[in-house]
Automatic annotation (TrEMBL):
Any Gene Ontology CC annotation: lytic vacuole membrane
Membrane topology per record: Multi-pass membrane protein
Highest taxon above the source species: Eukaryota
Keyword tags: Membrane, Transmembrane, Transmembrane helix
GO-annotated biological processes: vacuolar transmembrane transport
Name of the protein in its database record: PQ-loop-domain-containing protein
Reactions listed under catalytic activity: L-histidine(out) + L-arginine(in) = L-histidine(in) + L-arginine(out)
Family according to the record: Belongs to the laat-1 family.
InterPro entries for this protein: LAAT-1, PQ-loop_rpt
Transmembrane residue ranges: 13-35, 47-67, 73-95, 178-195, 215-234, 246-269
A molecular function GO annotation: basic amino acid transmembrane transporter activity
Source organism of this protein record: Aspergillus heteromorphus CBS 117.55
Record carries keyword Membrane: yes
């Protein structure tokens, strides 16, 4: 007696592989932005409204999934999403409070320093102070005049070196992002293969193709979640537009979001194209495939503002 491996149709295998890749993307999704915030020591680039609306979407997704009686694995993943969202929001709030306090302390020190400089010392003659200031200014002008020829000659070389360095960093970033995406795909496919071979993952029952009997309240929460996911990126797109910059945002964060949404929606469609099944999964299809347009918009902003910054540097 031996355990037989379930027989899979090509569509079911594709659905399982795509779903596993999507799950791997969601597990690692927030890590690049957490690292980017840590390296910068701030989270000014990311919109808190974007994170809060996304968090509401994950909360409604969790409640709707539990209400609909989805499998425990899906509910557990929804819990993980909520925890990960909380960690990123907590990090952003921490840096916001810490940096605002540091800025306030620096402003207070600056005001005290200016107050001390503006108060004249009664033992120092005004004429003497003005005379010494004039001498110091003349010395500074002479130093600038002597070094002008050197800095002017080195300016072109410095600009060229900076452009080469920025291009090198850009190439390294693309290699890093591409390597990360390939690693995510390999991990997802390997995980699904192991789950299938060991019997942990099994094809969905045929009757699911005709749709599932889902509570109306769970369906409503699913649509609310989809609306939140669709609207969450709009504040981030607007913030990028106002700042004319995407500096501080992790490109890999949005790449994984796009890949996760694409494979999730494709996995649902690969499983079945029966009308009732598609209608049942409309909220999740909207939440996944609909946000891809906004992710692509953010990619365009990355490209546009990176080109503008490079032009300004030259």
């Amino acid at each position: 007696m031996h355990d037989s491996v379930p027989v899979l149709t090509p569509r079911e295998a594709a659905s399982g592989l795509l779903g596993s890749i999507s799950l791997t993307c969601w597990i690692f999704l927030l890590v690049p932005q957490l690292i980017e915030n840590y390296r910068n020591g701030n989270a000014e680039a990311i919109s808190l409204l974007f994170l809060f609306v996304w968090f509401v979407g994950d909360i409604t997704n969790l409640i709707g999934g539990a209400w609909a009686g989805l499998v425990p694995v899906i509910v557990a993943i929804a819990v993980y999403f909520c925890i990960a969202d909380g960690v990123l929001i907590g990090q952003c709030l921490y840096y916001k409070v810490r940096n605002s306090r540091a800025a306030a302390a620096a402003a207070a020190r600056h005001r005290r320093r200016r107050s001390s400089l503006d108060t004249p010392d009664p033992t120092t003659p005004l004429l003497g102070r003005r005379f010494s200031d004039a001498i110091e200014n003349s010395r500074g002008s002479a130093r600038r005049a002597d070094s002008h020829g050197q800095t002017a000659g080195a300016g072109a070389d410095d600009t060229l070196a900076k452009i080469v360095e920025e291009n090198d960093v850009g190439r390294k970033a693309w290699v890093k992002n591409l390597s990360s995406v390939l690693a995510i795909c390999v991990i997802g496919m390997a995980g699904w293969t192991m789950a299938w071979r060991t019997g942990v993952w099994k094809p969905a029952p045929e009757e699911v193709d005709g749709g599932v009997d889902m509570a109306p309240g769970a369906m409503v929460l699913g649509y609310i979640s989809a609306v939140c996911y669709l609207g969450a990126r709009l504040p981030q797109i607007y913030k990028n537009y106002c700042d004319k910059s995407c500096e501080g945002l992790s490109l890999l964060f949005f790449i994984l979001s796009l890949l996760g949404n694409l494979t999730y929606g494709a996995g649902i469609i690969c499983h079945s194209t029966e009308r009732n099944y598609i209608v049942t999964n409309v909220p999740w299809l909207i939440g996944s495939l609909g946000t891809m347009v906004e992710d692509i918009t953010i990619f365009m902003q990355f490209r546009l503002y990176a080109t503008r910054d490079a032009t300004a540097a030259v």
